């Protein structure tokens, strides 16, 4: 048990020195791609000079939002600009020259899940490029009983795959980084 505990603290020390273990929000590095609205995001919809139509709305699990006069409109998968244009088109019969702005207030759709033998299993926000090592650090690192060379990343991107990962390969100088995607589940046995 003393050997396992020493290994755990060595790994945690490396993660702390690399700056991973204490970051809760990671910097977005894919700024060249516009943000796509996702399910459970919260949006501020502003109609210029019409406070009755301006409101904060959640994107429902089915991907739609409800706006007076427009009704149900699909928001998931659109950029804020695309959604604003769709709302503008829906309001034109009722509002003279509508000016619509959509701002993403809360990003709740992009998450990864870390479960198993980690200190704090749960859902973590995915902000930009997040590696498997960073997700494990966000979850507080491994417990004393973790099988760090038996990690599995379950990917739910339509292809439904499982990616087996050995922690020793991740931290080796020649090891490749596993970048997580929204909806991925990391299982640490």
Automatic annotation (TrEMBL):
Protein name, per record: Polysaccharide biosynthesis/export protein
PROSITE patterns, alphabetized: PROKAR_LIPOPROTEIN (PS51257)
Keywords: Signal
Keyword DNA-binding: no
Location of the Polysaccharide export protein N-terminal domain: 30-104
Top-level taxonomic group: Bacteria
Record domain Soluble ligand binding: where: 111-159
One Pfam assignment: Poly_export
GO molecular function, one term: polysaccharide transmembrane transporter activity
Classification via InterPro entries: Poly_export, Poly_export_N, Soluble_ligand-bd
Signal peptide: 1-23
